[in-house]
Amino acid sequence: MMDKIVLGIETSCDETSMAIIKNDQLIAHYTTSSADVQSRYGGVVPEVASRYHMKNIHHVFNEVLKEANLKPENISYIVYTANPGLPGCLHIGATFAKTLASVTKAQLVPVNHLYGHLFSAYIESGKPLFPLLGLVASGGHTSIYYAKDYEDIVVINETQDDAIGEVYDKVARLVGWTYPGGPVIDKNYDETQATIQFLEGMPATARFSYSGLKTAVINYVHNKKQHQEEINPIQIASSFQKYAIHDIMKKVNYTISQNPDIKCIALGGGVSANRLLRQKMQELALEQVDIPLLKYTGDQAAMIAHYGNKLIEQKEKQNA
Ligand code: KG4
Ligand code: ZN
User: Fold this and answer.
1) Which of ligand 1's atoms lies nearest the C-alpha of 166?
2) Is 13 in the pocket of ligand 1 (CB under 6 A)?
3) Is the CB of residue 269 below 6 angstroms from any atom belonging to ligand 1?
4) Could you tell me if residue 66 is left (phi over 0), alpha (psi between -120 and 50 degrees) or otherwise beta?
């Protein structure tokens, strides 16, 4: 039988990444990022991100093929991030995928970036138990999903305004730390210093919403500066993180209580690298709690190839 070679392409934000799955095994993965450049601007500048994808995409393709010891014509499927993401960045990945498909006759599989994150705990090992609840916490999204299988996925809660990762980045910037803000807040977190109450707690039944929290931190910092008082970055960042993670977990617990058929919960997205969030998720009383390896928490193509491969498998079973 011919080998099933699945190429994954991810270009939705500041990572240009490709991965190859050969007969259901991840065999190659290569990522470049413009995050260092973006940190000079304090956040992602879409035009800069697009330019980096343009500059790097061929190099990434050559590297991933070299690592897999394959040629373009060996590829059977091309899975690419179709949405959501920065339009200019998505465009570059999609155009590359479509051009490659027309030359190689590989089949195109456009996928949702967030579903890549949703199943990123299973890239190297393990299996989801359906129906599954998934929390995807990233720079652009804070969502809880209910998945009956790899395709039948509904959103149960989704942020009404700012995503959690975006607020991590904003709070870090406010206290003078670099982009991306999540890792630096995570590293400096000290529970004993989480003493500022920015807001009253939101009910567990509410939709995710972090713009109020963001505004409260902004007002606190501005107020201090106006009175020429020193700010304490660790105190601010720790207080913010304690509130934010507590709020997420409250909503996760409420959703679990509303969906007693659930046996499994999966975590994903850039913010799933967060130590406090990982610890709180591990403590959930569920049969199976699945947390991605750190290398698969941020944006990368392994999750895109993996998710696409699962869709292909599911279609093959349906057609058998
Ligand atoms: O999933 P991702 O790489 O990109 C999007 O699809 O948005 O998520 C990026 C976000 C950034 O906001 C970054 O600050 C946050 O993930 N992040 C973290 C941590 N590592 C990255 N947030 C909290 N704790 C972390 N350790
Ligand atoms: Zn992402």
Assistant:
1) 12
2) yes
3) yes
4) alpha
